[in-house]
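User: For my dataset I need records formatted as: sequence, then structure tokens, nothing else. Please produce one.
Assistant:
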Amino acid sequence: MKKLYPTLGVLCLLYPVMAMVLYIAHSQTPNEIDYSGVKIDNSLNDWLMTTIYDNLVNGGAVALFVAASAACFYMSFRNRYQY
């Protein structure tokens, strides 16, 4: 079980990293794009990013996964230095 703690800690950090990437993509998606002086409607991409962000990112889940990751890394370091 000692060797499983760091792996679980890294796996628990994947969701917060994914949530951060989705937040950045969601916040940077415009409704319109100005391409060579021509306005291009980007509402489909904006709707898609908003839908993905709203359905996949949850602040409580991010906090839970960060806490679980910290606990796994703590258990890993605690078990490594016990005599």
